[in-house]
User: Fold this.
Amino acid sequence: MLPYKTVVEAGAAIGRTLTTAETLWLNHTADKSDYLLYCYNILFLFIIFSLCPLYYVFMEYLFGNAVSVYKIQPKIKLSYGEMLKCYRDVVRMFVLVVGPLQLASYPSIQMIGIRTSLPLPSVYEIVAQLVVYFVVEDYTNYWIHRFLHCKWGYEKIHRVHHEYTAPIGFAAPYAHWVEVLILGIPSALGPAMVPGHMITFWLWIALRQIEAIETHSGYDIPWTPTKFIPFYGGADHHDYHHYVGEQSHSNFASVFTYCDYIYGTDKGYRCQKRLLQQLKEGTKNHEQKSQGSQNISSQDLKAD
Assistant:
């Protein structure tokens, strides 16, 4: 809870006039405990994994023919009943595991030093910290994911997540409860290494969940802003991992591609991309030759 209640007190404490954002923050949080502010994460998570996947559901329902070209595994299409079942399973996991974990983990947030005080962080500070969080999470998640693909880890834990060989947005958090707990570690390491403001922490949790939903969407959409992020894997990169399934030893990274490239765990994926490209080029060349033959035949007929 903030140690001051008015804008004048806060301005005197930090030695300058509050910005508009800081004034709004003060007005909203002055009478709220830090624990309550931390618990906003539960609400954010629930809203995000409930609403964000609907973007892909509506896109498929309203523009199915137009966007089918971007569907990575077009032959597999889940019914709305199957999607609803996945959502119910995720909600149950949220109520029984994720929510209680969030409520109980506040002491670790205090120990880390996530602050709610003024002044608010600058945009540069927020972006820099978020970059660190994503890189740390991605690297740590890579090795945990590889462990979960060993025989014991897969059979006992990770196979649940791979029930969806063609993933959908609702299946992003769909996993065994042990995996849900384990993967909370990479998400917490970045904030532990570089503590920031509660706003940055909120953004981190929200953006990580949105990224996971996009990665599991099953659509490689060309207009997504993430196409401009260097080394970003996206849906196409992770969809291959689900497509191969239990025998997959490729594309373990959660966000970026550099770990898979450095440690050679994207060779199968890159080989498949080369083969598909060669097949595409071969088909294109064949069509061009066929078109050329047809043009020659037409010219011969005209000459006759």
